[in-house]
Amino acid sequence: MMSNEPAPLKVSLLQLKPSIFNINGACPSMCSLREVLATLVRDAFEFTLGQYPDLSLWHISGSHVIYCLQKTRRYKVISIDNSHNSFPSALKRVSQLSKEELPQGASEQDIESTEIDAHSCDLTNPAQVRAVFEKYGRSGIWGVIHIAAYKAVGESTEIPLTYYANNVSATLSLLQIMNEFDCTRMVYSSSATVYGTPPIIPIPETTRLQADSPYGKTKVMAETILDDLCHAEPKRWQAISLRYFNPAGAHPSGKIGEDPRGRPGNLLPLLAHMAVGRVDATTLKVFGNDYPTPDGTCVRDYLHVMDLASGHLLALDTLGEDSKIFADSDSARYKAYNLGKGKGMSVLQIVEAMRKATGFDYKYEIIGRRRGDVPDLTADPTLAEKELGFKAPQDLETMCRDLWNWQSQNPQGYGEQ
């Protein structure tokens, strides 16, 4: 006899910085919430933005990924974050957004899905991470979205050991703890930097992995570990690596967006801070204009952060029991996908788009190239579109408009120190 009561929410672990989300898979409303662990530790999301590949995007991407998970009412989010480069109030705003969008007469499960179990811990501290898993018990966390990482290309060339310890060793430790607690599903935040200087544009996933910077190499190493693990235990482990290109924009409400601690290291937030008067700079320094691109400046593939966040949900859902993407794989359940629009934009094109969105008269100065930058990183998103159903329809004008909407409504970001 079937019960009329909805099953409990699944919990997912979303790892951005040291954050955790616990998800129990993708299921209709009659299923229980999946608990998903999200790691939000360190400098969380990584992307290579134009001439400014040094990003701090947990606060932009991590919060938007959580929003997309909560919007389904199928996932219970557990976050772990050490707030190294993010603000706790971002999670409060995400939760409030989700609550405001609840339907009239929402069920207890729907309401529960809008609450975030937030844990303050660091992925480089195994004892802290294990304590979170112990709270939910063996098999209590359905899957992990692992976003946490240091991700500044230039900085990685100066302190490579720090990058290898944080991005590789901490990921290895996390996987060991997951294995101990029978949590064997991961969506991993990788990066377009794994391709180095690609021989083919747009870049397909079959391109050889040949990163040019220590940061990019940490992503190659982590992907390799996941691939090896899934081959070693094909009946237990399954994972998807998402090779991000360049997320931009903010939630259209203007309530959540990117707010890095200190001066932004990536292009679009820096332009937004300049326009709102938060950065004491009148001239933008552009690294090189002698690349083999239309205007000589680096070209990057920008996609709206909401489109990027939806890609995480699609990837997570494919790790469910009914997924077909591994049907033809006899040896391992591991795949990598590009998340991008498939259209490149140069640094100077981005500056002009932000000029239009903000009305600010940007000045720029061309200086020498920066080590680690590559001329063109434009995605071929065909595989993700075909197998995940991924789409990135929002254009650059919308990205800049939503970014400026966030920044103008929140000139001091989340207002925390």
Polypeptide structure, described:
With 417 residues, the protein is an alpha/beta fold. The protein contains 12 helices and 14 strands. The protein has one domain: 3-Layer(aba) Sandwich (Rossmann fold), CATH 3.40.50.720. It has helices at 58-71, 89-100, 108-113, 126-136, 153-158, 160-180, 214-232, 267-276, 305-317, 347-358, 382-387, 396-409, and strands at 10-16, 34-39, 77-80, 116-119, 143-146, 185-191, 238-244, 246-248, 283-287, 299-304, 333-339, 344-346, 363-367, 376-377. The strands form 3 sheets. Strands 1, 2, 3, 4, 5, 6, 7 and 11 form an 8-stranded parallel β-sheet that branches. Strands 8, 10, 12 and 14 form a 4-stranded mixed β-sheet that branches. Strands 9-13 form a two-stranded parallel ribbon. Helix 1 links the parallel strand 2 and strand 3 (77-80). It is globular, with a radius of gyration of 20 Å. Mean pLDDT is 86; it is low at 1-8, 15-31 and 41-60.
What is the end-to-end distance?
Answer: 56 Å
Rg (C-alpha, Å)? 20 Å
User: What is the CATH superfamily label?
Assistant: NAD(P)-binding Rossmann-like Domain
Number of domains: 1
CATH fold node name: Rossmann fold
The parts where pLDDT drops under 50 for at least 5 residues are 1-8, 15-31, 41-60
Give the strand content.
Answer: 15-25%
What's the CATH architecture? 3-Layer(aba) Sandwich
Strand count: 14
Mean pLDDT: 86
Which class in CATH terms?
Alpha Beta
Helix content: 25-40%
Q: Name the helix and strand elements from N-terminus to C-terminus, one letter apiece.
A: EEHEHHEHEHHEHEEHEEHEEHEEHH
Q: Which geometry do the CA atoms define? A: globular
- Report the total helices: 12
Largest beta-sheet details? 8 strands, parallel
**Structural class category:** alpha/beta
